[in-house]
Amino acid sequence: MALKSLRKDELGEAKFVIKALEGEEERNQLARIYTAEGMKTVEKEPCRKPCVELVAVDKETKKVMGGAVALLEDHENAELLIAVPFKYRKQGIGGALLEESEKRLKELEVKRSSILPLTPNARDFLRNRGYHYSGDVEQRVGEEFVVAPMEKIL
Fold first, then answer.
1. Between the chain's N and C termini, which has fewer beta carbons within 10 Å?
2. End-to-end Cα distance, the chain
3. Kind and range of the H or E element at 23?
4. Which residues of 47-78 are buried (b: 16+ CB within 10 A; e: fewer)?
Protein backbone atom coordinates (compact mmCIF):
# COMPACT_ATOMS: atom_id res chain seq x y z
CA MET A 1 0.00 0.00 0.00
CA ALA A 2 1.43 3.39 -1.01
CA LEU A 3 1.64 5.90 1.80
CA LYS A 4 2.84 9.01 0.08
CA SER A 5 3.76 10.22 -3.41
CA LEU A 6 5.65 13.46 -3.85
CA ARG A 7 7.58 14.35 -7.00
CA LYS A 8 5.57 14.47 -10.18
CA ASP A 9 6.48 14.06 -13.82
CA GLU A 10 5.36 16.31 -16.65
CA LEU A 11 1.86 14.80 -16.60
CA GLY A 12 1.40 15.47 -12.89
CA GLU A 13 1.85 11.81 -11.93
CA ALA A 14 3.96 10.90 -8.92
CA LYS A 15 7.27 9.26 -9.85
CA PHE A 16 7.74 7.37 -6.58
CA VAL A 17 5.84 6.14 -3.57
CA ILE A 18 6.90 5.78 0.04
CA LYS A 19 5.74 2.49 1.48
CA ALA A 20 6.53 -0.14 4.07
CA LEU A 21 9.39 -2.42 3.06
CA GLU A 22 7.97 -5.68 1.70
CA GLY A 23 9.68 -8.87 0.73
CA GLU A 24 13.17 -10.15 0.21
CA GLU A 25 13.83 -8.36 -3.11
CA GLU A 26 13.13 -4.89 -1.64
CA ARG A 27 15.20 -5.79 1.44
CA ASN A 28 18.12 -6.86 -0.78
CA GLN A 29 17.88 -3.68 -2.88
CA LEU A 30 17.86 -1.56 0.27
CA ALA A 31 20.83 -3.46 1.72
CA ARG A 32 22.80 -2.73 -1.47
CA ILE A 33 21.96 0.99 -1.20
CA TYR A 34 23.09 1.16 2.43
CA THR A 35 26.32 -0.68 1.61
CA ALA A 36 27.05 1.57 -1.39
CA GLU A 37 26.46 4.66 0.75
CA GLY A 38 28.92 3.38 3.38
CA MET A 39 26.27 2.99 6.05
CA LYS A 40 25.35 0.29 8.50
CA THR A 41 24.23 -2.93 6.88
CA VAL A 42 20.52 -3.57 6.84
CA GLU A 43 19.71 -7.07 8.00
CA LYS A 44 18.37 -9.32 5.25
CA GLU A 45 15.68 -10.62 7.61
CA PRO A 46 13.08 -8.40 9.26
CA CYS A 47 14.33 -6.32 12.19
CA ARG A 48 14.47 -8.16 15.47
CA LYS A 49 13.86 -4.94 17.40
CA PRO A 50 10.55 -3.18 16.90
CA CYS A 51 11.23 -0.85 14.00
CA VAL A 52 9.96 1.14 11.06
CA GLU A 53 11.22 0.12 7.61
CA LEU A 54 10.27 2.23 4.61
CA VAL A 55 11.33 2.37 0.97
CA ALA A 56 10.89 4.83 -1.85
CA VAL A 57 9.93 2.85 -4.96
CA ASP A 58 9.90 4.07 -8.55
CA LYS A 59 6.32 3.64 -9.76
CA GLU A 60 7.36 2.51 -13.25
CA THR A 61 10.36 0.28 -12.64
CA LYS A 62 9.48 -0.81 -9.07
CA LYS A 63 13.14 -0.21 -8.22
CA VAL A 64 13.99 0.90 -4.68
CA MET A 65 15.25 4.51 -4.84
CA GLY A 66 16.04 4.91 -1.14
CA GLY A 67 15.06 3.72 2.27
CA ALA A 68 14.69 4.49 5.94
CA VAL A 69 15.04 2.19 8.92
CA ALA A 70 14.20 3.33 12.44
CA LEU A 71 15.53 1.15 15.23
CA LEU A 72 13.85 1.60 18.59
CA GLU A 73 16.54 1.87 21.25
CA ASP A 74 13.88 1.93 23.95
CA HIS A 75 10.29 3.15 24.15
CA GLU A 76 11.33 6.80 23.89
CA ASN A 77 14.36 6.86 21.55
CA ALA A 78 14.94 5.72 17.98
CA GLU A 79 17.99 5.67 15.72
CA LEU A 80 17.15 6.57 12.14
CA LEU A 81 19.12 5.43 9.09
CA ILE A 82 18.20 7.04 5.75
CA ALA A 83 19.95 6.46 2.44
CA VAL A 84 19.21 7.81 -1.03
CA PRO A 85 21.74 7.09 -3.81
CA PHE A 86 23.31 10.15 -5.38
CA LYS A 87 21.48 9.68 -8.71
CA TYR A 88 18.09 9.94 -6.93
CA ARG A 89 18.87 12.94 -4.72
CA LYS A 90 17.19 16.35 -5.08
CA GLN A 91 13.84 14.70 -5.88
CA GLY A 92 12.25 14.93 -2.42
CA ILE A 93 12.85 11.27 -1.59
CA GLY A 94 14.93 11.84 1.56
CA GLY A 95 12.47 14.38 2.91
CA ALA A 96 9.53 12.07 2.23
CA LEU A 97 11.29 9.15 3.94
CA LEU A 98 12.19 11.30 6.95
CA GLU A 99 8.67 12.72 7.26
CA GLU A 100 6.98 9.32 7.06
CA SER A 101 9.50 7.79 9.49
CA GLU A 102 8.85 10.54 12.04
CA LYS A 103 5.09 10.10 11.61
CA ARG A 104 5.36 6.36 12.28
CA LEU A 105 7.65 6.92 15.28
CA LYS A 106 5.15 9.39 16.78
CA GLU A 107 2.43 6.76 16.37
CA LEU A 108 4.65 4.41 18.41
CA GLU A 109 4.96 7.21 21.01
CA VAL A 110 8.69 7.61 20.45
CA LYS A 111 9.85 10.94 21.90
CA ARG A 112 13.27 11.45 20.27
CA SER A 113 14.82 10.55 16.93
CA SER A 114 18.58 10.56 16.33
CA ILE A 115 20.52 10.28 13.10
CA LEU A 116 24.17 10.45 12.10
CA PRO A 117 24.81 12.80 9.13
CA LEU A 118 27.76 11.65 7.04
CA THR A 119 28.16 14.79 4.91
CA PRO A 120 27.73 18.56 5.31
CA ASN A 121 24.73 18.38 2.93
CA ALA A 122 23.10 15.75 5.14
CA ARG A 123 23.70 17.95 8.19
CA ASP A 124 22.09 20.95 6.47
CA PHE A 125 19.18 18.79 5.27
CA LEU A 126 18.56 17.66 8.86
CA ARG A 127 18.94 21.15 10.35
CA ASN A 128 16.28 22.39 7.94
CA ARG A 129 13.97 19.74 9.37
CA GLY A 130 14.49 20.54 13.04
CA TYR A 131 17.46 18.34 13.96
CA HIS A 132 20.41 19.62 16.00
CA TYR A 133 23.65 18.14 17.26
CA SER A 134 23.33 16.24 20.53
CA GLY A 135 24.79 17.70 23.71
CA ASP A 136 27.18 20.65 23.40
CA VAL A 137 28.55 19.72 19.96
CA GLU A 138 26.77 22.69 18.32
CA GLN A 139 28.46 25.19 20.65
CA ARG A 140 31.88 23.58 20.27
CA VAL A 141 31.97 23.32 16.46
CA GLY A 142 29.71 26.13 15.26
CA GLU A 143 29.26 25.86 11.49
CA GLU A 144 32.10 23.37 11.08
CA PHE A 145 31.01 19.91 9.95
CA VAL A 146 31.55 16.94 12.24
CA VAL A 147 30.23 13.40 12.08
CA ALA A 148 28.24 13.39 15.31
CA PRO A 149 24.66 12.41 16.16
CA MET A 150 21.87 14.88 15.55
CA GLU A 151 18.53 14.59 17.28
CA LYS A 152 15.00 15.92 17.25
CA ILE A 153 12.24 15.85 19.80
CA LEU A 154 9.22 14.41 17.97
1. N
2. 25
3. helix 23-36
4. eeeebbbbbbbeeeeeebbbbbbbbbeeeeeb
Residues 6+ apart with CB under 8 A from 79: 70, 71, 73, 113, 114, 115
Q: Over 90: is that where the pLDDT of 153 sits?
A: yes
d(CA 126, CA 116): 10
Residue 51: closest CA among 31, 23, 30, 79: 79
β-strands 150-153, 112-115 pairing: antiparallel
Kindly list the strands in the beta sheet with 77-83, ordered across the sheet, starting from the edge strand earlier in the chain. 2-4, 16-20, 51-58, 64-72, 77-83, 112-115, 150-153, 132-133
Our measurement of the distance from residue 150's CA atom to the centroid of its chain's CA atoms, rounded to an integer in Å, reads 13
Go through the domains of the chain in sequence order and give each one's CATH number: 2-116 (3.40.630.30)
List, for residues 28-63, the tens digit of each pLDDT value.
999 888 888 777 665 555 565 668 999 999 999 999
How many whole angstroms separate alpha carbon 103 and alpha carbon 132? 19
Give the dihedral sign, CA 50/30/68/83: positive
